[in-house]
Amino acid sequence: MIIDTSKQYTAVIETEKGNMVAELFAKDVPVTVNNFVFLAREGFYDGSTFHRVIPDFMAQGGDPTGTGMGTAGYHFDDEFTEHKHDAGVLSMANSGPNTNSAQFFITFTPQHGLDGKHTVFGRLIEGMDVLESLTPRDPSQNPQFEGDKILRITITEK
Q: For the chain, what is the domain count?
């Protein structure tokens, strides 16, 4: 573990459209936050895109291939808590139980149908307007169009 669960972690997601700031739930979902912090600090997300943006649902990123098929080369188990898929939460994208890797999404609106299926690991505390400004995109419909870039994700520990 590279995180200390007694500390608080914040992620600044810098995009072409502006910055979003999220508090991460390190104490509640330590494996998931540890993974996100590790990948962010390693620069894994730098230059990737929000490859799938569906208005009134979510914006998905964290795939270096931009196709929705990319991973970090490993998977880890789900961590379900009382955190719900309210508007502005960060949650892990997956392809079924215990298939978390690098991809994550941020919800535009409450999506409680995802509760118990995807691990919620943070929430936006700034930048909901930036989230809402992301260009809609579905790679299965228009793979030629690249999504808005994630310039970098910076982690702060307090």
A: 1
